[in-house]
Specification:
With about 180 residues, this protein is an alpha/beta fold. About 35% of the residues lie in helices and about 15% in strands. The chain has 6 helices and 5 strands, in the order ββαβαβααααβ. α1 (about 45) links the parallel β2 (about 30-35) and β3. It is globular and about 40 Å long.
């Protein structure tokens, strides 16, 4: 078993790429880092305004045999990026195309590695964390994550979504921050 990787506690912001713009970030900009896991971009994301940025696209699929699917090398690159951030960085922005699957799976795993609970992500009906990304990221971080546990988290997430549907508030995306 790998040794557990402990990450600094960041304020984690989960956003879709279209929401990435100057007013989405905390000031000064040196306090921010961004991980984008999609090829989708926008004009602000393409600029060099964000001093600490990792763009690492991979498809939003849950099966490992798909070409380019999230793998250990992706996870290790993300971990290396986060561990290499300077101490002044306090906010970590994680984005994917819609801000609901790949980015939330990364955020949940990063929460675990920083000593916090990932239930804030899994119990949120606005998100559907990518099971493959979450499992592989946790494993690379040194947290044994059996397929059964991931499946149970996913089932709980589906229940939360169905409850939100009954209340009439499912699928209404809002910028969300994990404190």
């Amino acid at each position: 078993m790998k040794r557990k990787v402990v990450l600094k506690k960041y304020a984690i912001h989960i956003l879709p790429v279209p929401a990435i713009r100057i007013d989405a970030f905390e000031y000064p900009m040196e306090k921010n880092a961004l991980i984008s896991c999609t090829e989708r971009t926008n004009s602000f994301l393409s600029e060099n305004t964000i001093p600490y940025k990792l763009v690492l696209p991979f498809p939003d699929v849950d099966f490992a045999d798909y070409p380019g699917a999230f793998n250990g090398a992706h996870a290790r690159e993300i971990i290396k990026f986060i561990r290499g951030l300077p101490e002044c960085v306090t906010d970590l922005y994680v984005c994917c195309s819609k801000g609901g699957s790949r980015s939330t799976a990364l955020a949940a795993a990063i929460l675990r590695a920083s000593g916090r609970k990932d239930s804030a992500v899994w119990k949120n009906p606005f998100y559907t964390p990518n099971k493959l990304v979450y499992k592989r990221m946790c494993n690379e971080l040194g947290f044994f994550m059996p397929r059964l546990i991931v499946r149970l988290k996913s089932l709980d997430n589906e229940i939360q979504f169905k409850k939100a549907q009954k209340r009439g508030n499912a699928g209404k995306y809002e910028r969300w921050q994990i404190l």
